[in-house]
C-alpha cells in the first residue's frame, strides 16, 4: 500500500549502482554514475574527465598532427591503437597511467594535466543538481552500493582511510540533500556490519565507526521458504509421475540435515524442496543457495545457474545423458562457481577452502573421492556462517551414495592426507598442502619427552581453576573460594596432612578450601580414597573421584610435542601453512581434553563421586 502511494507521486529518481571490484573505490563510484547516465540517454550530462580528455587529445593528433599520431601508434603498437582507446573509454587506470607516461615524449616534455576536477563526491553533487533541472525533470538519485559487505572484507589498512572518507562524504551528501534534489545512499550487505567484526581488521572497524552514525539499518527479510519456492518456480517440470523416486523416503532422510525442519513442515519440505527443486538433491539446493549468496556475481549467480544454458548450468545437466533418478550433486555447483572462488581474494576464507580443494585434486584421486572433496569444500565455505557439518552422514545425503561407500572414501582420503576429522567442529575438513611429515616429527618429539608429570602438564594446559561457594558467600557477605588440584591417587594416599596443600613454602597455594580431582589408572580405589579423606580430617577438603579412568596422557604428550615443534624456528622456516596446521591440531587436542574433563569431573555431566569428610564414613 505504501509503495503504491509513493509511486502515485510521479517522482522519478536516477538509479546508480556502484559495484566494487578490483579498482579504486572512487573509480567504482565514477563508473556507476557514468553507466547510469548512459543507460538513461543522458550522455550530455557526462562531464569531462581525464579519460575523455585523453581520447579527445588522441583524436586531435590523428586529425591535426599526423606526425605526433604516428609516434603515438609507434609507442602503443599500430594494431593496438583502437584497443588502447577503448580501454580509455572504459576508464582503465593502467591504460591512463601508460598514456600519462608517453604523453611527455610526444609533447616536448609537457605533462598531461587537463583542468578537470575529478573528486567523486563533487561530481555526484553537480550531476544530481543538473538532472533535477529541465529538461530532465528528475527529483534526485538513488545510489546503491552493491555488495558493501565484500567491500568491507577486502579493505586494507593502506586504503581504508581514503575509502571510508569517500563513503563518509557520500553519506553527508545524502544527509544534506533537500527535496529539490534528493540523494539517497543505500548500502547492500548480507548482514549487519557489526556481525563482521569477528574477522574485520581493527583499522576497518575503527574507521567505519565514523560512518556508522550517518546510516540507519533496514532489514530486508525473506524466509528460506521464499528462496526455495523461487527455485521451484524457475525449474520447469513435465511428466513428474514418470520419475521413479521415493519422494517421501528422500524427504525423511534429508529433513533434519540442514535445519530444514525450522522452516518447513515435513509435507512442505517434500513438495517444495525435494520435488520442487528436482533434479537437484536437497543438500545440493541448500549449498547452491548459500554459495551463490556468498560469492555470486552478475555473470555467475543463482539465476544464471538455473536459467542459463552454458556449460555447468542446471540446463546443461538436464540435457545430458542421464537416468531420471540421477540428481545433481554439489560437485556441479563447485564446478560452476569455481571461477568466482578462484578470484574471490577479498573473501579470504572462501578462497582458502577452494585453494585447498584444488590442491587436493592434484593428487591421484578417484571420481568418487573428487566428488567428496568438492562437497566438503562447499560445506566448509557455508559452514563459516551456517552450522554445516561435513560428516559421513551429510556427505552421503549430499552425494546420493551409500554411507559405507562415503566412509570408505573418507578413510582413503585420510590416508592420502587430503582430509582430517576435526573433533571440535565435528566435521571433516580439507588439509592444506604441507611439505613435511608432521606426524613423524610429532612422534619424534614425543619420544624426546623424558621428564613428564601428568598433573603438572594438566595444570599447565588447562590452567588454574577456582570454584566460588556462591550461596555461602551471599549469606555471609564475604568471598571464599576453593582451589582445584589434579592429583594422582598415589600422591593423595601419601598425604599425612593437608597443610602442604595450603602453604606456599611447602609447594601449596592459598585458598579457603581445596577440591582434589583424583586420577586413578584403574578407578578401583574408591573405598580407600573415602577412608583416607576421613583420616585427613579436613572439613574444607572435597574429593571428586571419576567412575572410569581419566586417560589423557597421550593427549598431553601430543600437545607438548606440538609446542616443541612450534619453538623450532629452523624446522618451521616461516611456513605459515605448517604453523596453521600445528595450531589446528593443538586446538583439537585441547577440545578433546576439555571434553574428557567434563565427562569425568563435572558433577551432573560426568559419572563421578563427590566426597567430603562429613559423608566419608
Describe this structure in words.
The chain is α/β, with parallel strands linked by helices and 617 residues long. It folds into four domains: 1-47 and 118-213, no CATH class; 54-107, no CATH class; 224-430, no CATH class; 437-616, no CATH class. 53% of the residues lie in helices and 9% in strands. It has 30 helices and ten strands. The protein has helices at residues 2-7, 25-39, 50-64, 66-76, 81-89, 93-106, 120-131, 148-154, 160-176, 202-212, 224-234, 247-254, 266-275, 282-295, 302-307, 314-318, 330-343, 348-360, 367-383, 392-399, 403-415, 438-448, 454-462, 470-476, 489-493, 499-502, 526-536, 553-566, 569-572, 576-601, and strands at residues 14-19, 140-146, 182-187, 419-422, 427-430, 466-467, 482-488, 513-519, 541-546, 608-612. The strands form three sheets. A five-stranded mixed beta sheet has the order 6-7-8-9-10. Helix 27 links the parallel strand 8 and strand 9 (541-546). Helix 17 (330-343) packs across helix 18. The longest helix is centred in the last third of the chain and has 26 residues, at 576-601. The chain is elongated, with a radius of gyration of 33 Å. The termini are far apart.
Amino acid at each position: 500500500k505504501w509503495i503504491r502511494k509513493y509511486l502515485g507521486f510521479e517522482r522519478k529518481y536516477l538509479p546508480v549502482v556502484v559495484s566494487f571490484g578490483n579498482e579504486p573505490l572512487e573509480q567504482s563510484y565514477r563508473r556507476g554514475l557514468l553507466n547510469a547516465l548512459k543507460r538513461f540517454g543522458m550522455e550530455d550530462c557526462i562531464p569531462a574527465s581525464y579519460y575523455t580528455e585523453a581520447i579527445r587529445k588522441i583524436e586531435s593528433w590523428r586529425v591535426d598532427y599526423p606526425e605526433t599520431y604516428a609516434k603515438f601508434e609507434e609507442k602503443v603498437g599500430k594494431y593496438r591503437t583502437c584497443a588502447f582507446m577503448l580501454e580509455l573509454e572504459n576508464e582503465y587506470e593502467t591504460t591512463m597511467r601508460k598514456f600519462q607516461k608517453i604523453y611527455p615524449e610526444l609533447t616536448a616534455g609537457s605533462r598531461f594535466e587537463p583542468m578537470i576536477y575529478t573528486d567523486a563526491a563533487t561530481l555526484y553533487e553537480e550531476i544530481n543538481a543538473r538532472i533535477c533541472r529541465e529538461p530532465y525533470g528528475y527529483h534526485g538519485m538513488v545510489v546503491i552500493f552493491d555488495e558493501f559487505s565484500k567491500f568491507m572484507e577486502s579493505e586494507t589498512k593502506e586504503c581504508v582511510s581514503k575509502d571510508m572518507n569517500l563513503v563518509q562524504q557520500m553519506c553527508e551528501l545524502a544527509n544534506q540533500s533537500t527535496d529539490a534534489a534528493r540523494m539517497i545512499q543505500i548500502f547492500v550487505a548480507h548482514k549487519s556490519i557489526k556481525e563482521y567484526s569477528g574477522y574485520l581488521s581493527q583499522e576497518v572497524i575503527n574507521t567505519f565507526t565514523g560512518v556508522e552514525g550517518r546510516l540507519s539499518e533496514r532489514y530486508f527479510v525473506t524466509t528460506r521458504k521464499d528462496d526455495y519456492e523461487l527455485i521451484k518456480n524457475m525449474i520447469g517440470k513435465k511428466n513428474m509421475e514418470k520419475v521413479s523416486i521415493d519422494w517421501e523416503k528422500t524427504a525423511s532422510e534429508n529433513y533434519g540435515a540442514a535445519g530444514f525442519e525450522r522452516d518447513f513442515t515435513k509435507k512442505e519440505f517434500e513438495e517444495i524442496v525435494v520435488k520442487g527443486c528436482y533434479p537437484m538433491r536437497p543438500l545440493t539446493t541448500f549449498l547452491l543457495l548459500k554459495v551463490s549468496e556468498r560469492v555470486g556475481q552478475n555473470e555467475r549467480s543463482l539465476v544464471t545457474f538455473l536459467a542459463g544454458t552454458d556449460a555447468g548450468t542446471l540446463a546443461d545437466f538436464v540435457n545430458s545423458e542421464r537416468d531420471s533418478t540421477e540428481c545433481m550433486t554439489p560437485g556441479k555447483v563447485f564446478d560452476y562457481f569455481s571461477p568466482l572462488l578462484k578470484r574471490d581474494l577479498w573473501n579470504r576464507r572462501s578462497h582458502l577452502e577452494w585453494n585447498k580443494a584444488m590442491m587436493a585434486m592434484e593428487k591421484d584421486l578417484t571420481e568418487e573421492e573428487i566428488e567428496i572433496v568438492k562437497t566438503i569444500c562447499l560445506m566448509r565455505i557455508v559452514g563459516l556462517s551456517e552450522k554445516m557439518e561435513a560428516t559421513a552422514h551429510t556427505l552421503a545425503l549430499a552425494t546420493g551414495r551409500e554411507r559405507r561407500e562415503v566412509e570408505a572414501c573418507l578413510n582413503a582420503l585420510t590416508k592420502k592426507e587430503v582430509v582430517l576429522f576435526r573433533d571440535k567442529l565435528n566435521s571433516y575438513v580439507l588439509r592444506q598442502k604441507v611439505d613435511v611429515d608432521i606426524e613423524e616429527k610429532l612422534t619424534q618429539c614425543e619420544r624426546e619427552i623424558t621428564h613428564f608429570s601428568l598433573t603438572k602438564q594438566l595444570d599447565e594446559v588447562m590452567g588454574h581453576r577456582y570454584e566460588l561457594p556462591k550461596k555461602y558467600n551471599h549469606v555471609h557477605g564475604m568471598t571464599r573460594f576453593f582451589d582445584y588440584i589434579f592429583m594422582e591417587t598415589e600422591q593423595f594416599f601419601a598425604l599425612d596432612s593437608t597443610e602442604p596443600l595450603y602453604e606456599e613454602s611447602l609447594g601449596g597455594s592459598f585458598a579457603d578450601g581445596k577440591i582434589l580431582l583424583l586420577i586413578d589408572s584403574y578407578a578401583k580405589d574408591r573405598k580407600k580414597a573415602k577412608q583416607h579423606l576421613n583420616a585427613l580430617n579436613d572439613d574444607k577438603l572435597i574429593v571428586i573421584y571419576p567412575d572410569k579412568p581419566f586417560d589423557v596422557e597421550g593427549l598431553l604428550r601430543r600437545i607438548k610435542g606440538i609446542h616443541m615443534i612450534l619453538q623450532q624456528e629452523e624446522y618451521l622456516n616461516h611456513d605459515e601453512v605448517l604453523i596453521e596446521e600445528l595450531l589446528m591440531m593443538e586446538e583439537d587436542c585441547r577440545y578433546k581434553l576439555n571434553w574428557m574433563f567434563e565427562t569425568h569431573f563435572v558433577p551432573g555431566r560426568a559419572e563421578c563421586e563427590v566426597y567430603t569428610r562429613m559423608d566419608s564414613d
